[in-house]
Inverse folding.
């Protein structure tokens, strides 16, 4: 399919000037300079890079004259696993309710076993509300969504490192290597999400990152601007997006609950409480963390779509505004189940178990606050953990999970040593 004139211009600029290097450094956006001053200060000219091999044909929608004006076409690139998939599901519902056009591109194949689990098994709720759902490879978004598709906003709820979002080109190996019989693997990604969106002229790019990139702090909670692990894949993606887009924002979630989530959180506690088993908690149980209902995370993202100017160039802790201790979470889960909990505290080192395998949360204070969202977007949290856990237990009970046979080998080892 031929390029439209606008798309051709965008693609030409992408191929000939994207992250141009050589005689001069590529330009950095003002939002990158603000969000990542250290990285900007360290940026240097690199060696000349080879041009990307191809850019998929897309038709680019003319952007509204006033930023944020009118209804928008939004593409959600959604992961097919882990706890983040439910964020895209809830966001799609919020945007559809607000009158926006939504396409959800889920990684993988529609017929895979993963799609039999929520939230994917509930995608009929999206299509019945007017959404388009497609499956494919995020390394070739254009092919997955169709050559005639056009979007004002792209949300990447899948990329965890630059391999997932950035175009790479590895030149052929030196002739000497080939003559020597050396096998050299080259890696080419044919227009991953960020580069595809840039070439297509997408006006706003949003990214679901992770609060796990913060370095441990002696002064919790984590707030936007705190130090992060520079080696973390999400950090590299955030910096790259800031280089490419003027209107961008990154959202850092923590733990979440909500109907449709397919990663154990509260279920881990319910599994033990309904069977009358002790709930083993590492340490004192006074460690503080943050657990948010996914509707809060989706509402924050939706506000960024509605107010791109306010969100531009910002990083948001995508969390609720209340913390909870491990002991408190056990008690809330027990109250939701109508039971009395038995909490067993233990020292992982003394027992000889890895707390990462024996407990679903980080064995430390891990708590972020949503200050930027409140100040910049006017966002307000609706998470009410005691009530939300009652809703979750009702769904847990109706699933029959409480009656299934389960093994608790690590728990038994902890109980025997306590």
């Amino acid at each position: 399919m031929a390029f439209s004139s606008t798309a051709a211009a965008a693609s030409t600029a992408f191929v000939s000037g994207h992250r141009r290097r050589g005689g001069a450094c590529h330009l950095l956006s003002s939002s990158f300079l603000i969000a990542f001053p250290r990285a900007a200060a360290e940026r240097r000219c690199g060696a000349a890079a080879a041009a990307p091999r191809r850019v998929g044909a897309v038709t680019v929608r003319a952007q509204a004259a006033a930023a944020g004006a009118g209804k928008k076409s939004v593409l959600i690139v959604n992961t097919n696993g882990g706890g983040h998939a439910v964020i895209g599901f809830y966001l799609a519902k919020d945007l559809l309710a607000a009158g926006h056009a939504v396409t959800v591109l889920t990684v993988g194949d529609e017929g895979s076993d993963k799609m039999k689990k929520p939230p994917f098994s509930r995608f009929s709720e999206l299509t019945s509300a007017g959404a388009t759902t497609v499956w494919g490879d995020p390394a070739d978004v254009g092919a997955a969504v169709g050559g005639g598709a056009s979007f004002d906003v792209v949300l990447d709820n899948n990329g965890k490192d630059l391999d997932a979002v950035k175009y790479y080109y590895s030149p052929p190996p030196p002739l000497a290597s080939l003559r020597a019989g050396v096998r050299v693997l080259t890696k080419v990604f044919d227009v991953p999400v960020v580069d595809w969106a840039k070439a297509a002229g997408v006006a706003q790019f949003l990214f679901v990152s992770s609060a796990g990139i913060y370095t441990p702090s002696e002064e919790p909670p984590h707030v936007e601007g705190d130090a992060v692990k520079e080696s973390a894949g999400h950090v590299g993606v955030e910096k790259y997006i800031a280089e490419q887009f003027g209107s961008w924002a990154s959202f850092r979630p923590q733990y979440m609950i909500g109907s449709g989530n397919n990663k154990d959180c509260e279920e881990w506690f319910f599994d033990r409480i309904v069977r009358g088993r002790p709930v083993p908690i590492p340490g004192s149980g006074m460690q503080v963390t943050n657990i948010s209902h996914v509707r809060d995370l989706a509402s924050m993202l939706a506000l960024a779509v509605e107010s791109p100017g306010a969100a531009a160039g910002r990083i948001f802790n995508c969390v609720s505004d209340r913390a909870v201790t491990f002991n408190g979470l056990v008690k809330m889960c027990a109250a939701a189940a109508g039971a009395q909990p038995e909490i067993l505290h233990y020292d992982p080192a003394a027992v000889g178990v890895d707390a990462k395998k024996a407990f679903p949360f980080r064995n430390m204070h891990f708590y972020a606050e949503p200050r930027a969202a409140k100040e910049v977007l006017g966002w307000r949290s609706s998470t009410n953990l005691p009530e939300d856990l009652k809703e979750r237990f009702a769904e847990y009970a109706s699933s029959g999970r409480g009656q299934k046979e389960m093994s608790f080998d690590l728990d038994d080892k902890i109980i025997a040593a306590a």
